[in-house]
Amino acid sequence: MDKAIQFEHPEIEKLDRDGIVAIQKTKLKALGERLQNSPEWVQHFKKAGMAPRDLGDFDSLHHAPTLEKSDLRALYPFPMLTVDMSQVRRFVATSGTTGLPVLFGLTDKDLNHLIPYQMCRVLRAAGMTPADRVYQGYGYGLWIGGLAMDIGLNAFGATNFPLGPGRGDLVTTWLSDHGYTACSLSPLWLMTLVTMAKAQGIDPRKAWKLRVGVFGGQSISAAFRDQLEAEMPPGFMAQNIYGTTEAGGPLVSISCPYSHDVDEMHLINEDTIITEVVDPVTLKPVAPGEVGEIVITTLDRDASPVVRWRTRDLVRLSADAYSCPCGRHGMPKIGRIIGRSDDMIKVRGVMVFPTQVEDIIAATEGAVKEAWHIYIDQDDEAMEQLTVAVERSKASTTPREDIQYRIGHAIHSRLGIRVTVECHDEGVLPRYEAKAVRVHRRGKAKA
Questions:
Q1: Where are the domains of the chain?
Q2: Using CA atoms, how far apart are residues 313 and 406, in angstroms rounded to an integer?
Q3: Rounded CA gap, 353 and 339, in Å?
Q4: CB count, 10 Å around CB of 2?
Q5: What is the pLDDT of residues 406-416, one digit of tens each?
Q6: pTM to 2 decimals?
Q7: How does pLDDT run across 2-41, given as a tens digit for each residue?
Q8: Fold of the domain spanning 345-442
Q9: Which CATH number applies to 1-340?
């Protein structure tokens, strides 16, 4: 059977919510029985006075202990494997930006069945087809992004050009010469490629053939997405994708051609992943329209399943979660990632998320959209003052002082705090080919 057909499953995607929940309950019970054979998982469940086999419905799941990186780091180096090491074919790891990376194993089943099954659904929902030529710009190594995308594109039947991030001069040329029609990469990296192409005399709107992209690594504002689409050939659609290493890759959620316009994504693999959106303090489910933290349970992952994994990623549950013209009514919608609960900055009593600052910069004429940073002085333990660093576009005629004023005024008007805004020449601030780091602590400037 053709691989592109083998991994289509409309019988799942067209189920209503009750149908999806029935699958989840059956798989949850089976997962509990499997974890009962793992001493590490048995010990973990004892924290809540439970045993893994107690998992059988959502009430028991909600009483199960949550799982965090600290739990896994305490079991270094190969935490909570549920298969013998001889069955593990590959390891992937978290980024390790805040500590020692955590390793997760993948078996043949994970690599050759589960990830293809999940990723094909993501690609199809985003609007890709097996006829697409895809510039694959996610990174490789221990990071799962590039690996999962390669596996998915192969099973889907599309033609993959796995350049990964970097080599910008080559990519800008090949986007023209090879006629890529789809792409997967960081949105900030694509905007950087647009800037590089223009410097080479290439107009992406005319020279490139891109019609759809799936963008992960960091969430982008609707304003940034609209401006990115405006730099692409007419009709190009920037689809927001979300996933984590712990969940198995960039496969938790994706926007479809209908949810794209309202800046929302479907929890697209709910028959293999249970996704809770909960209050980060109480861990109780949030109501439609409210913001909560994504907590994930993987139902089918073979070597390294997770139960109630706290992602720390904050998102707004859609006010109309189960309705979409695409027909995926059993796969609820969420908004774009707002930020992380551990990245939130509290400035003079006001909670600030980096994405709120990005929204303002993206809407400011003359400011470079992909280059901005927030700085906190090392000795400012109370976080009384933020410095926002931006760049002025080379093509802009707006004075630097005006850009600084407009951004500072907008932040004060919308967020209620005053910040210092630094405006640099284009090209001064760091760029990121993959996941961007936006909040930094730095030594206080000397007077």
A1: 1-340, 345-442
A2: 29
A3: 6
A4: 9
A5: 999 999 888 88
A6: 0.81
A7: 444 456 788 999 999 999 999 999 999 999 999 999 999 9
A8: GMP Synthetase; Chain A, domain 3 (3.30.300)
A9: 3.40.50.12780
